[in-house]
Design goal:
Blueprint: H1 2-14, H2 17-23, H3 28-82, H4 92-114, E1 120-122, E2 126-132, E3 135-147, E4 158-170, E5 182-186, E6 200-203, E7 210-212, E8 216-220, E9 235-238, E10 240-241, E11 247-248, E12 250-257, E13 260-270, E14 282-284, E15 308-314, E16 346-352, E17 358-366, E18 370-378, E19 387-396, E20 413-418, E21 437-440, E22 460-463, E23 468-472, E24 478-481, E25 492-499, E26 502-511, E27 523-525, H5 533-539, E28 546-552, E29 558-559, E30 574-575, E31 592-598, E32 603-611, E33 615-623, E34 635-645, E35 655-656, E36 667-669, E37 673-676
Parallel strand pairs: 32-35
Antiparallel strand pairs: 1-3, 2-3, 3-4, 5-19, 6-8, 7-12, 8-9, 9-19, 10-11, 12-18, 13-17, 13-19, 14-16, 15-16, 15-18, 17-37, 20-34, 21-23, 22-25, 23-24, 24-34, 25-33, 26-32, 26-34, 27-31, 28-31, 28-33, 29-30, 36-37
Helix pairs in contact: 1-3, 3-4
Length: 678
């Protein structure tokens, strides 16, 4: 009715005489027929044009459907190509470029199919391609106009149409034995052909990684003087790049992660040897786990030259094409170039690999979906030599396979053997050992052996005085008495050794100085409660009780080594791990691993223990009752330290040695995610 009213009003406006004609009742049947014919034909024309407009919309909608499908499939193909055919949570730098290119392709396809039509005119379509987890969504919004024909008689010159179509494509999950999927992989193999032939180069923004500094140095291992092979492929990246003065660099990639569990794995090699640490490795989840490792390197004597920091940060600018990683913080005082801890989250740090590839694993739980930046940063001294990395993998849940066992020694390797051979007189068969006692200075160089390349002169420290009583022993070498006759009488000896996570065993021999009628023994165990210690205390015969201990250098103060000698009387002092003597930590020894209360005959002891964090540890033997000054104590001899194996080794009854926080396996919380300390 609205259209008919419009038609009548239009005709009456154009022909005023028709009003007069309409009031004339003579021959009105023919006049009414003539008048009704006009709106009837106009309505028919309007219907025809509306049908033409609907047909044009259907035609364009079909093109938009194919365009959206093309955009989604094109984006998937580009992502696969840009991320080494890994089809899941791929790196977002390459994804952003892939999505943009798919939009360009789709727009060109849409235009080529619609520009030849003369039936309609199209506006520029809006095409978007987005990604959520493994789903790509392409959306095409279109609009246009159809030029009318018969409808123009009523002033309707054009008709409009519009529509929205959506198509999706799935990125295939790449499964692994642990049930997760790859999100990111990088082995630095996408380099010019020349890189395959014994050479290196410095690259900026390599393969979707956003670099800061002069760029990352990528080298074929055949061009590197001390790296025999790469964990994956032939190339590795160094983050102290070749430059006039050396240049620490960083490399960052942006990934989209949904709420869930993830694992980061990578391999690390410290380029410059540090003989004080070889063959041990030193890595951890926090700066406190590695800051103590400040020994000079073998190349130019600087410290921390091999340092690596790994960071993980939520992107506060979640634009799909954002390519600006978090700001860095250059500390000119320490010259270590760490990221600003108020802006960046450190999730792993390494300073030493022991001249071999060490595989690191960081378990993460993401609490907020979004874009995250993963960054590897060269830190420490800038001298053209630094942290080398390879085979980076970020996986949902866990990555394929088991993490490499990084334990530096073969199972059963003897790391130390001490016979206290610095006694003054040799043992003579047939004569009682007590005939050949002397004050002795304990060996200070005996840690230079197959276990460590060159451990600093850590030697044995003694207390409470800087001497010990040695007696030539039928056990070989000398035996050490833990109760000297020159007071203060009872003694403690301790020695610092560098140990990696794994299992170890101290073997030693023990015997009483004097026969014990109440407890002939052997009476030994892991704790005092496993011995007759209480009985011996009640009888006043507990002067032989000798314990073996292992303590973290960072958690306890230790005896300071002095040069002992004949009738030495210099009192021993205590110091913290950094040699400071104020605000002393509790004194070692503390963590008992084994104890012998009494044995009238030689007993051989094997005391296993577990180390969970790389670091210096003090192994100690001590009279358990230092307050009891009898001048008589237990004798120990033939001390040896063995490496039993890495963390996967099965070692029953091993005593776990406390380590500094964060405790291995504990949760470290950040604002939007957490990691498991490792």
């Amino acid at each position: 009715m609205k259209y008919l009213r419009n038609i009548v009003d239009h005709i009456r406006a154009k022909c005023p005489a028709l009003d007069v004609f309409g009031r004339n009742k003579r021959g009105n049947v023919s006049m009414l027929f003539a008048l009704m014919a006009i709106p009837v034909f106009a309505a028919a024309g309007l219907g025809i044009d509306m049908a033409r407009n609907a047909a044009n919309r259907a035609r364009v909608d079909s093109i938009a459907q194919s365009t959206a499908a093309l955009a989604a499939s094109s984006a998937r193909a580009y992502i696969n190509n840009q991320t080494n055919n890994v089809e899941s949570e791929a790196d977002q730098y390459a994804v952003a470029a892939s999505l943009q290119q798919s939009i360009v392709d789709a727009t060109a396809s849409f235009s080529s199919q619609t520009t030849k039509s003369t039936n309609y005119t199209l506006n520029t379509p809006t095409i978007t391609v987005t990604r959520s987890s493994n789903t790509l969504t392409a959306t095409v919004n279109y609009s246009g106009t159809t030029k009318t024909t018969l409808s123009q008689i009523i002033g309707q010159k054009t008709m409009t149409f519009h529509g929205t179509v959506v198509q999706t494509a799935q990125l295939a999950q790449v499964s692994n034995p642990s049930g997760g999927s790859y999100i990111l992989q990088e082995s630095f193999e996408s380099v010019p052909t020349a890189m395959q032939h014994n050479t290196w180069g410095v690259y900026q923004n390599y393969n979707g990684w956003v670099t800061l500094g002069v760029g990352i140095e990528i080298a074929n291992v055949r061009s590197m003087w001390n790296i025999p092979k790469a964990p994956d492929g032939q190339n590795v990246a160094e983050l102290d790049s070749q430059d006039t003065n050396g240049a620490n660099s960083s490399m960052s990639k942006r990934v989209y992660l949904t709420v869930g569990n993830y694992e980061l794995r990578y391999f690390y090699w410290s380029r410059v040897p540090v003989s004080s640490y070889t063959p041990t490795w030193i890595c951890g989840s926090t700066t406190a786990d590695t800051n103590w490792a400040n020994a000079p390197n073998d190349y130019n004597g600087t410290t921390f030259t091999n340092q690596l920091g790994v960071y993980f940060d939520l992107d506060n600018n979640p634009s799909a094409v954002n390519m600006n990683p978090p700001a860095t913080y250059w500390d000119g005082t320490l010259n270590r170039n760490r990221f600003d801890p108020s802006k960046n989250n450190l999730i792993d740090s390494c300073v030493e690999s022991g001249q071999r590839w060490v595989e690191r694993s960081v378990k993460m739980t993401v609490y907020s979906s979004g874009y995250y930046w993963l960054t590897f940063q060269g830190e420490g001294n800038q001298d053209n030599f630094g942290a080398n990395i390879d085979n980076i993998r970020l996986c949902s849940n866990t990555c394929p396979g088991t993490v490499q066992e990084n334990f530096p020694w073969a199972a059963g390797t003897t790391l130390m053997n001490e016979q206290f051979s610095s006694g003054w007189w040799p043992y003579a068969p047939g004569l009682p050992p007590s005939s050949y006692w002397t004050w002795c200075t304990l060996d200070t160089t005996n840690a230079t052996h197959a276990g460590w390349t060159l451990l600093p002169g850590t030697g044995w420290a003694t207390g409470p005085l800087d001497d010990s009583e040695c007696i030539s022993s039928a056990q070989g070498g000398s035996e050490l008495e833990m109760g000297a006759w020159y007071g203060p009488y009872n003694r403690t000896i301790m020695r610092k050794l560098l140990l990696d996570p794994g299992y170890y065993e101290i073997d030693y021999a023990f015997i009483n100085r004097a026969t014990n009628q109440w407890d002939a023994g052997p009476d030994c165990g892991q704790t005092l409660a496993q011995t007759k210690y209480s009985l011996l205390v009640s009888q006043g015969l507990n002067y032989h009780v000798t314990g073996f201990y292992v303590d973290s250098d960072l958690m306890y103060s230790h005896l300071v080594t002095h040069t002992g000698g004949y009738y030495a009387t210099q009192a021993s002092t205590y110091a913290n791990w950094d040699d400071s003597t104020t605000n002393l930590k509790p004194a070692a020894p503390s963590t008992m691993v084994d104890v012998c209360a009494s044995s009238n005959t030689w007993v051989q002891r094997a005391a296993p223990f577990q180390i969970t964090k790389p670091g210096y540890y003090w192994i100690s033997f001590s009279s358990v009752n230092l307050a009891m000054q009898s001048g008589i104590g237990g004798h120990i001899a033939n001390i040896s330290l063995k490496a039993l194996g890495g963390p996967s080794t099965t070692t029953p009854n091993a005593v776990v040695i406390p380590a500094p926080t964060p405790v291995i396996g504990s949760t470290i919380n950040f604002n939007y995610f957490s990691i498991t300390a490792n």
